[in-house]
Amino acid sequence: MSPDSSSAWRFGATTFNAATGVLEHDGHSSRLRPKTADLLAELLAHAGTVRGKEQLIESVWRDVAVSDNTLTQSIQEIRRALGDDARAPRFVETIPKRGYRWVGPPIKAIGTSTDTEETSRSPRLAARIATVVVLAVIALIWWWLGLRPPSAAQHAYDAGTLALGQTGTVLAKTHFQRALDHDPNFDAARIGLAQVAYFEGEWSTAKDLLGSIDSGDAELNMRVHGLAGEIAYLEGKLDDAMVRLERALSHAERLDAAPMIVRTHRVLDEVRQTAGLSPLPALEVTTSDVDDPELSAMSAFYDSEDLTRLREALARYQDLGDTANQAITRLAMAQSGLLDPPTEHDMLRRSATMFFELGNRPMTALVHNRLARHYLVDDLDQDNLDQALAEVEQALAIHVDMGARLNAARDRRLRGTILYARALAGATSDWLSAEQDLEKAAAAFESMGCPAELGLTRLIAGSLALDQDRVDAARSRFEDAKTSLADSDLAVFAELGSVRVLMKEQRWADALDRAMALPSSDNRLVAETRARCLMRLGRHDDALMQLANHDGPLRNAMQSGNSPPPPASLLLDFLRR
After folding, report:
1. Residue, of 288 and 128, whose pLDDT is higher
2. 3-state class (DSSP) for residue 537
């Protein structure tokens, strides 16, 4: 008898009954979810051949709309039950960009073989009787527990997962709640509701939901710690965030959950660097290792250097109707630095609209912050500065409302920077507001233990004080910035700030000594600073040598014998970088 005509199989020391979903492996018995059991039966029925993802979804879920992520979760459930490893598969092999293949031991159909007509009828009758008995027992158990069939809960959960990526939080919440109504012990649906609460900015609700989950399931724990870690990070609780994210990453690596590995590794690395710790080793997981749409989106978002790959990903998500990953990919394209300004602006604007329509407030606020920075690095005319201010104020309002202390401090620093630029452009009333925002941001970063963020804020505040001729305040802030940015590539700007203070005091020899001690590495700002000091000391030829590789107004003025233009604000030089 061929496997596809059987409902029970043996392979090696393992037996599997597709009718009941019971899998007995290495002396342990486990019951797979109904659709996961159907998926394993489908793989066994086509052992040795590659089954495409679309084929598997069509065969197992039929007319029910599910995402690729649902298929991935079921594959992971099979692997866990069999003790399989995706990196060295003994049973289920992932075929990148195609699907999955059963590569386990030879399969033998059991319990349904016949030699005579009589023996063929008898097992069928027995099977029917057994099925009726099993269904009656299951119905009795459901009645006794007051539960509805798990398949109804799973169906509602799958619909919620799909809605979260396609239509947004409102419909997703309805489906996840329905799943819990069907099965109050369905922790995956509880995590889904926590995800909805996170997106909607109801972080206390999200944390309560996550805290109510006490499970020994590695996948559930991975998701709980991952989401709790991200919330803790945005709240500015860096130590708690690192503990949570390290646990999530450990679970993800054991499960070989590539999308979660990529995301958690990146967030944990960002938390560590925000806390002033060393970065994590480079991640080796790439989209070529596992063909998964969520992994593609995460990789595109965090490694956006291949515009062709990003465009292909965007087209794929448009075909799938996956709004969330479309928005993520558009954001990645905008951050790649490979688009012209109008296209970059369009990508950011459309991404913000998509996240807003999905009800994803953290990502909506993030894109508003990016839009503000987009306007700020463009021509610093009044219109662009006004647009930048409007965008960052939207981001700040969302972050303050959600309790996202870290990103609220970043928004406040950005708003202070924009007001500072407006003051340089002539809006003198903005000086005080700019300084107040920068001081509030610095205090927040210091209280959260974010040295790099604090150093950058002090650097901008020092430049502001210098442009107001408040030399002592500028000197103090640049010194503070150097301490906080000691291991950062921004440290050179803090050093340049200290040199600019000496130049403001006309201590040209001291300024030159400090400037010559800076690592140049073909840095235009360092070269121009040295040249200005040398000119003031009458060393015109040496000054020109410093500018040999740097065309610009200063070099042109020196070569033509004209008076050199005054140095631009350190802020403007920093923004141009």
Report:
1. 128
2. coil
CA gap 52, 255 in Å, rounded = 22
Lowest mean pLDDT among 25-29, 153-157, 356-360, 394-398: 25-29
Closest residue by Cα to residue 427 from 378, 382, 392 = 382
Q: Cα(496)–Cα(577) distance, rounded to whole angstroms?
A: 14
Of 267-276, 336-345, 460-469, the least confident: 336-345
Residue 41's identity, in one-letter code, is A
Give the long-range contacts of residues 503-510, CB within 8 A, separation 24 or more.
503/529, 503/532, 503/533, 503/567, 504/466, 504/469, 504/471, 504/474, 505/471, 506/536, 508/533, 508/536, 508/537, 509/533, 509/537
Element (H, E) at 23: strand 22-25
Better pLDDT: 85 or 546: 546
Burial of residue 211 (number of CB atoms within 10 Å: 0-12, 13-18, 19+)? exposed
Alpha carbon separation from 396 to 411, 490, 561 (Å, rounded): 5, 25, 49
> Containing H/E element for 266?
helix 258-274
Burial class (CB in 10 A: 0-12, 13-18, 19+), 511: buried
Instruction: Say which residue the tokens 């130590």 belong to.
Output: 239
Crossing angle between the packed helical segments 150-166 and 169-182, to the nearest 10 degrees: 170
Q: What is the 3 state secondary structure string of 124-167? A: HHHHHHHHHHHHHHHHHHHHHHCCCCHHHHHHHHHHHHHHHHHC
Which tokens hold the place of 212? 């109510």
Cα–Cα distances in angstroms (integers) from residue 236 to residues 210, 232, 406, in the given order: 19, 6, 5
Question: What is the H or E stretch that residue 496 is in?
Answer: helix 491-504
Query: Which of 77-81, 122-126, 236-240, 336-340 is most confident?
Result: 236-240
- CB 102, CB 46: distance < 8 Å: yes
Q: How far apart are CA 351 and CA 359, in angstroms?
A: 12
What is the structure's pLDDT at 129?
53
For residue 392, give both structure tokens. Answer: 């960052």
Q: Is 68 exposed, middle or buried (0-12, 13-18, 19+ CB in 10 A)?
A: middle
Closest to 228 (Cα-Cα) out of 184, 186, 258, 271? 271
> Residue 308 to residues 134, 300, 322, 483: CA-CA distances in angstroms?
54, 11, 19, 41
**Which tokens hold the place of 536?**
């003031």
Q: How are the residues of the chain apportioned to helix, strand and coil, as percentages rounded to the nearest 5? A: 70, 5, 25
Length of the chain: 577
Tokens of 528: 């121009």
* Residue 18 near residue 41, CB atoms below 8 Å: yes
SS3 107: strand
pLDDT tens per residue, range 237-263: 999 999 999 999 999 888 877 778 888
